[in-house]
Design brief:
Largest sheet: 6 strands, mixed
Low-confidence stretches: 253-260
Helix content: 25-40%
Radius of gyration: 19 Å
Number of strands: 10
Bound molecules: adenosine-5'-triphosphate, magnesium ion
CATH architecture of the largest domain: 3-Layer(aba) Sandwich
Number of domains: 2
Number of helices: 7
CATH topology of the largest domain: Rossmann fold
Strand content: 15-25%
Structural class: alpha/beta
CATH class of the largest domain: Alpha Beta
Shape: globular
Strand order of the largest sheet: 6-7-8-3-9-10
Mean pLDDT: 91
Length: 260
C-alpha cells in the first residue's frame, strides 16, 4: 500500500476554559490514502468539526500528530483545503470573482487565471452563472461555486464539513453524484464529515464512526461496491442496518471493538 496522504496519529484535543478542561477528542488514529473518500460519521457534538479543523491546520492537537504527505500539519495550506458549511462566498463579488479570489497569491497570468476559473465553473455546471452575484443563486448553486473555488486551488485533499446539510434531498443527491464524478476525474482525496448515514454509505470508501464524550473512533467500515451506488439495493440496506446498530451502542457509551 502507498504511503498515506494524511496520517492521524494518536491525536487528542482538549479545550480549557477558566472553569474546566474538556477532552473533545481522545486517541484518534487512522490513515487516509490518496484518492480515497473518507467519511467521518457521528452525532452532533462528538468532535467531527474539531477533527477536521485539526487536519486543516486551523487548530493544533493537544497531543499526537497529524501528517500531510509525511510532514506535520502546523498551519492551513493550499494542499489541504476546507470547504465551509456556509459556502463562505463574498456577496458583493460575482461567481467568477469568488472563484478567482482563491487563486490570488498563486503565480498565474490573467489568462491562466481566467482559464482555471472557467474550467472549474464548467466542471460544476455553472459557467452560464459566472457573472451572477451569490444571492442570485440557489443554495445548491452556491455550494457548487464553493466546490469550484476549492477545486480551482487544485488541492491534494479537500476537507468537507457537512457540505450538503443545508440543501433539500434532491439537490443533495444531485451534488453527491456530482462530487463522485468530479472526484473520480480529479482523483483528489476527500475527508467529509456528516451525520447522515445514507450520505456516508453513498459516498465513502471507508466510514469512521465516532462516539462522543470524549470523541473517539468506534469503528471503521469499508464500503464495497462501485459508485454511484444504489440506495435501494440489499448491500445498501445491510450497511444502513450495521451502522444504525452501531449508533445504538455508541449511545450507551460503551466502547466496543469487534470485527464484522
Ligand atoms: N473552540 C472551542 N472551545 C471550546 N470548546 C469547543 C471548541 N470547539 C468545539 N468545542 C467543543 O467540542 C465539542 C465538539 O464540537 P464539534 O464542533 O467538533 O462537534 P461536531 O461533531 O462537529 O458537532 P455538529 O455535528 O453539531 O457540528 C463540543 O462539546 C464543543 O462545545
Ligand atoms: Mg460540526
Amino acid at each position: 500500500m502507498l504511503a498515506p496522504i494524511v496520517s492521524i496519529q494518536q491525536v487528542s484535543k482538549r479545550f480549557s476554559s477558566q472553569k474546566k478542561q474538556e477532552t473533545v477528542l481522545e486517541q484518534i488514529s487512522f490513515d487516509v490514502h490518496k484518492g480515497e473518500i473518507i467519511v467521518i460519521l457521528g452525532k452532533s457534538g462528538c468532535g467531527k468539526s474539531t477533527l477536521l479543523n485539526l487536519v486543516g491546520g486551523f487548530e493544533q492537537a493537544s497531543s499526537g500528530s497529524i501528517l500531510l504527505d509525511g510532514e506535520e500539519i502546523k498551519k492551513p495550506s493550499k494542499r489541504c483545503i476546507m470547504l465551509m458549511q456556509n459556502y463562505a462566498l463574498l456577496p458583493w463579488r460575482s461567481v467568477e470573482k469568488n472563484v478567482a479570489l482563491a487563486l490570488e497569491g498563486e503565480k498565474l497570468t490573467k489568462d491562466e487565471m481566467t482559464e482555471r476559473v472557467v474550467h472549474y465553473l464548467g466542471m460544476v455546471g455553472l459557467l452560464d452563472k459566472r457573472k451572477a452575484l451569490p444571492h442570485e443563486l440557489s443554495g445548491g448553486m452556491q455550494q457548487r461555486v464553493a466546490i469550484a473555488r476549492a477545486l480551482a486551488i487544485q488541492p491534494e485533499v479537500i476537507l468537507m464539513d457537512e457540505p450538503f446539510a443545508a440543501l433539500d434531498t434532491f439537490t443533495r443527491y444531485y451534488l453527491q453524484d456530482e462530487l463522485i464524478s468530479i472526484q473520480q476525474r480529479e482523483q483528489m482525496t476527500i475527508m467529509l464529515v456528516t451525520h447522515d448515514i445514507d450520505e456516508a454509505i453513498y459516498l465513502a470508501d471507508r466510514i469512521f464512526i465516532m462516539g462522543a464524550n470524549p470523541g473517539r473512533i468506534y469503528k471503521e467500515i469499508s464500503i464495497k461496491g462501485a459508485k454511484p451506488r444504489n440506495r435501494a439495493d440489499a448491500d445498501f440496506q445491510h450497511y444502513r442496518e450495521l451502522i444504525f446498530n452501531e449508533f445504538q451502542f455508541t449511545s450507551n457509551k460503551q466502547q466496543i471493538e469487534y470485527n464484522i
